[in-house]
Amino acid sequence: MPGLLRGIARTTVVAGTATAVSNRVSRRQAGRWAAQDQQAAYNQPQGAYNQPQGAYAAGSDTSDRLAQLQQLGALKAQGVLTEAEFEQQKARILNS
């Protein structure tokens, strides 16, 4: 009987560990996919379809940058972006 209980306990521990590892991998992969989606969104031209043809107005450019920086800060606060990714995207926005 003790051998049977030991076997059941071992199986329970192994199954619980496998479930925990699987859940952790799933969360990490979902985070990576979300980060890739955000990166792809940043690489697309911002507001290209909403702006009339011709030169951008200076006020519009400033408000666009501010909106992008606010969105970037929100993504960092949510944990979607790391500090390094945040700094890289912030520099890209400010230097454009």
Automatic annotation (TrEMBL):
Q: Which domain of life is it from?
A: Bacteria
InterPro entries per the record? SHOCT
Q: Where is this region: Disordered?
A: 27-62
Lineage here is: Bacteria, Bacillati, Actinomycetota, Actinomycetes, Micromonosporales
Protein name in the entry: SHOCT domain-containing protein
The SHOCT domain sits at 67-94
Composition-biased stretches, type Polar residues, lie in: 36-53
